[in-house]
Amino acid sequence: MLHLTKYWDDLHVLHVNREEPRAHYIPYADERSAQSAKRGQSPLYQTLNGQWKFRYYNSVHEVKDAFYEDGVDVSGWDDLLVPSCWQSNGYDQMHYSNVNYPFPCDPPFVPDRNPAGLYIRDFQVREEWLGKQKHVVFEGVNSCFYLWVNGSFVGYSQGSRMPAEFDLTPYLRDGSNRMSVMVLKWSDGSYLEDQDAWRYSGIFRDVYLLARSESRVRDVFYRADLSEGLDQSVVQCTIDTVGSVDVTIQLVDASGVKQGEASGTIDGSATFSLTVEQPELWHAERPYLYSLFVTGGGEVLHFKVGMRKVEVRDGVFLINGQAVKLKGVNRHDSHPELGQTIPLKHMIQDLHLMKRHNVNTVRTSHYPNDSRFLDLCDELGFYVIDEADLECHGVLHAGDYHMLTKDPAWEAAFIERAIRMVERDKNHACIVMWSMGNESGYGVNHIAMARWTKERDSSRVIHYEGAALKYNGHPDTDCLDVNSRMYATVQELLDYATNESLNKPLLQCEYSYAMGNSCGDLQDYWDVIYKYPKLMGGCVWEWCDHGIKAVSPEGEAYFAYGGDFGDKPSDGNFCIDGLVSPDRIPHTNLLELKKVNAPVLLEAEELSKGLVRVTNRYDFIDLSDCVMAWKVERDGETMEQGLLPVLHTAPKQSEVIEVPYTIPAEGGRWFLQITVMQSRDTRWAAAGHELTSEQFELPAPHSSIDQETTIAWKPSLKVRTEGSEVTIEGFDFLHVFDLQAGTFTRVTKHGVPLLLQGMPKFHIWRAPADNDRKIKVFWRQEGYDRIETKVYRSEMTLSAADKVRFEVEFSLGGYIKLPILRGTSIWEIDGEGVITVAAEMKVREELPYLPRIGLQWMMPGGNEEVEYFGYGPHESYVDKRRSVRKGKYALTVDEMYQSYVVPQENGSRYGTEWATVSNALGMGLKFTSPGSSYSFQALHYTPEDLTEAMHTYELKRRKETIVHLDHRMNGIGSSSCGTDLLEAYQLSDKEFAFKLEIAPVMKEDE
Predict the structure, then answer these.
(1) Predicted model pTM
(2) Contact 59/31 with Cβ under 8 angstroms?
(3) For residue range 398-418, what is the model confidence (pLDDT) as tens digits?
(4) Which residues are catalytic?
């Protein structure tokens, strides 16, 4: 093995020769280039991103040669782009783990077989840098690395997601230089980096050189102290120098007008103060930024300054004196092809999507993000919970959740992770909260982190969920400013809010687990959060699915997840838990969140007079930047529409407006829809972008029952029986009912087959959604997934010229177990060929709630057109329907399908009143439920298909159309991690009665 000092499992060594942490900045030569914030325009910056020579070893013990020595021939090595992750480039092992360490838990020691990656880069140094100090900055290296330049050892660093800066001045020479880096997959720091994510390795963030003056500004820390009335700001700017430096600071507003200036000679540290009267305040709704220029030592540093005040008062979280609700998401660095190497445009894409969906907060779960991400949050307007790169969840399964945080030997490692985060990010207005990591127990080391953080920066609040009482950690939580919970129930939030002895605001740092078809409980949470000031909001887990772009053996693209690469231990598809897909296509979960977190609330006041109540849920701005459009539909057709006058409703206030529609005087289903849009272009959306909408059913006269159409003659039904089959033939239809099966085997209209031989059958199974992961165990135990129909009695009880009736007694059950339910169905066929089925069923008392209850009807291939009147345009469920509107929709069967990385229940339409499925010529079936609505689904997959497939490429699209007419469908919830499905949405009734009508139609003739 290469002779090395073994720092990687030595708790006493966290770095060697690394520069002290500082605020993030790039030095520029002048104010103009600094203003651009384009680092490539600085002559004092030089990127080392690009192609490096690379060699991977399964173990550091296999590295025999002094590869870092000057002149070593590396021409035969691989080429690897930096920044990048090994695993995304075919090296090492793709590995996803949620909780468990991927190695034996023996802190601080890691396996002897510790993979190593060797990097070599030859580079030139600019001639104009002669006489300058030369530094290198590694923005992120996982997990630790050794650095050499021109054969000389420079230093060592660990701590993956924070920068490591080294002074290279003594090691560089004129002409060509060689940088050599050895990265190890694991270090003792890996015990603190057990985040729920893919375990990536390598130089995954930017690497660059900086030219610095020998006497220079080393660090800058500004604090904008606002007066009680917020009408004055004193900007305290503390500057640390190396050597004696003449320093000038200048504060400029967004229009370029100078607001203040100060100067002086600093040798060590000094603080300048600038006073701004009537400052423009920063907040997420209007993120006003000043520019602070710090000039000294021939360099100009540029910092964006947001003036805002964060505090907790009387148990309420305040920004600029206003109680603010954090409408957040948890966001990992995740790219389907690049892993944790995140391009700038990808960060922008994420943040723009969040803005378009009414998200105002990001928790950087569970480590500090790239500094440029924070720059964007400053500019676009997001509240950020900046989280230390600290999670040691794996110790839980090793026997003691608090093992590391209570061990004084780990104190320095814990505190350093707070120090490096705070020092780098302290000048970002977007950061309103420091988080002391995630799921790492709670002990004296966390307390030391929080106390250091509070002493260094008292302008923000401090958060750590692991201090919750349920974990039985250290009892002293005085160092934390907020209480935090993961996946608390709605009732638990209500209990907290109404308990007067609890005097800290409560944050749901994780809630409504967005895995697969999910987020069915958002409205229930936010009804409580909006009501109580002590509840400050929460962050949905999580932003994106962590799928890996892959190709099946048949050449079909799909997204892979844990276990697909032979990785052990693995938590499977638990990384597929986002509001958006890996390629950033919003799931319907995100559409629900957008609606629930909308900044404008619309409520019916007195619809018979056109009165609607508008509530502004913004915290700081009025509604003058909004445009409101309205329209009235009758049975899905637009009858009236218009624009409303611009409103100036103040933040957190309401007003009643009159919408000038005509009160319906005719029968039908009349709906008023009001859409709130932004009136101007923003960086994330064009003018006209929808912020929210609301729909109201209008009072209208009852439709008079049309007189039966008079026809010259009424054809009689012809009925004949052959064995168990009864054929019912009318003028233009022919149906066959099988008495033995207790259902139809053939349905035709004008000779067109409308039923597949699979026969219509009562059905209770749905492909488990990810949120059914707990209850599906009990469903399967009782045989819900393998039901068969047992017919006890089936007879024709009426055979008349205009009607035929069958009565069937049956049960549904699976092998081993007693029948799940018993029921009676009455099937009728009228003279027009319309089939009506009335069913009554009783479920065995002790059984768990059902997935669904209804009728499955398979239609032959070619029935691709779907038209329905119900909620749309996308999927909806009893608890997941805030983002849909009642109307008439026309789609294809393929468009009814909602794709998830792991196939599961999808595409159902709650509250459907009628639906037609037909071929391209309009020949098909119309489904109604007289006197009620139902959940409607039409797909090219059976529930069994969706159940068996674990990846999208395993799904084989059937040519047939599988229709489900569900009297009831179980709710969706978010219980894949966290709370059980709320009882109100469980299909727990033990008796059901419903009626369905299936009418053959020729749509173009009607």
Answers:
(1) 0.97
(2) no
(3) 889 999 999 999 999 999 999
(4) 439, 510
